[in-house]
Amino acid sequence: MQEISKKAQKKASGQSHPDKPQKEGLRERKQRETRQLIAQTALNLFLQQGYDNTTLDTIAEAAGISRRTFFAYYKSKDDIILAWQTTSWQEMLDELRQVSALLTPLNAVRQIMVAHATRYQSQNMKALDQVMLASETLISRKQAAYAIQEAALFETLCEIWPEQAQSSLRIVAMLSVGAMRLALEAWRRDMDTQTVAACLDETFAQIQSEI
Amino acid sequence: MQEISKKAQKKASGQSHPDKPQKEGLRERKQRETRQLIAQTALNLFLQQGYDNTTLDTIAEAAGISRRTFFAYYKSKDDIILAWQTTSWQEMLDELRQVSALLTPLNAVRQIMVAHATRYQSQNMKALDQVMLASETLISRKQAAYAIQEAALFETLCEIWPEQAQSSLRIVAMLSVGAMRLALEAWRRDMDTQTVAACLDETFAQIQSEI
DNA sequence: AATATATTTGCACTGAGTGCAAAATTTAAT
DNA sequence: ATTAAATTTTGCACTCAGTGCAAATATATT
Q1: pLDDT digits (tens, 9 = 90+) for B127-171
Q2: Residues 6 or more apart in contact with residue A21 via CB below 8 angstroms
Q3: Which chain B residues contact residue A185 at CB under 8 A?
Q4: How far is CA B193 from CA A1, A89, A192, in A?
Q5: Does B137 contact chain A (CB < 8 Å)?
Q6: I need a surface site. Which of A189, B24, B60, B176 has the fewest CB within 10 A?
Q7: All domains of chain A in start order, with CATH
Q8: Do A38 and A63 contact (CB within 8 A), yes or no?
């Protein structure tokens, strides 16, 4: 198989503790490490010589794997960079699902997103941002990723507020992702004196007072 | 040269009438025709066999040009489809520049965009939409194109309302492009009974009352 | 008709991504 | 501890998008 089995099903054998997530086998550990190694290696290369000037062969060689194996871990070159964004968004959605209840959708999202942004490592952020900015391709892909995030957010909103009109929730999703985009752009212009979270909160405030 | 000279400069020879745009020479006409031919040929092929299953070789052959020449007219495969979107947006921006003056930015954009949408040929729209929906690649590229449109709209807004805070105009641009995206999605769900313009106006109304 | 200019084309190349089947490695079973 | 089963890694050959270059065509200018 060329795709890594996500351990889709585990045998119903005698489990010591069903609450323990599952002890991580040798395979799982090595895969996690390899994935991380690829990401780190690639990011370094991108920072050094640019995204477009770095071929998959170079990355694979530097990470000590074969070119073909790379595709078992990431489904495309841009996925190395974009996977981070996707993962982080997924975490945010999980947090959103738990906390909110009585707030309006937009306020709930605002609160969770800002709280989540507080935890960003600005060091990593800056590196990723720098790599992305230098490549037309990546800029494109990032925008496409936003659309996917917007759709995922909409789905989640529908679960949490099933009584709300869908058209309204679509707008909330659009505004929220839009706020995040604008906030990141603002932060880029003002990286040194502001945090991402502060930019985000300010952007939300402006949007809510704008209309 | 592989890139087509956009007739960057014309000699200052005896022009019959400076107000006449310029009489179209044989070259210009053939280029316009070729460009149109490529677009039409490709669109037909895409509709028949899908975007991803249609290679550039196939398109070039069907259009009676060489593969290499294709790239003199479109800079990438997706550009065949996306060029339409870009052109149309540019027209809209030109209209925006002329009409507005006293309206608020958001209301001005809303008015012009709705008016512009009225002129869409729903036949072409449906074909393009159908092609796009069937290809992951194109969906991605379309989203990336929206980001470019948003940036262009922002630039235009800055020209028209130089006294407005840029942060506010950025939000207007974000909302406007967001409205268009949502409106097109709504229209797709309801193609037969609604016009694009109606969907767009309704979406703007909802957004403006949402917050 | 001759010359300058712009366009078309062929060719060879790079680089991303995929399918396939043979090796190598890990896990499970006896 | 051996053996067997399952999973991962890898190499190879392939398709397709996109680019650089220079020769061949076509168009415009005088």
Answers
A1: 999 999 999 889 999 999 999 999 999 999 999 999 999 999 999
A2: none
A3: 170
A4: 48, 36, 52
A5: no
A6: A189
A7: 26-73 (1.10.10.60), 77-210 (1.10.357.10)
A8: yes
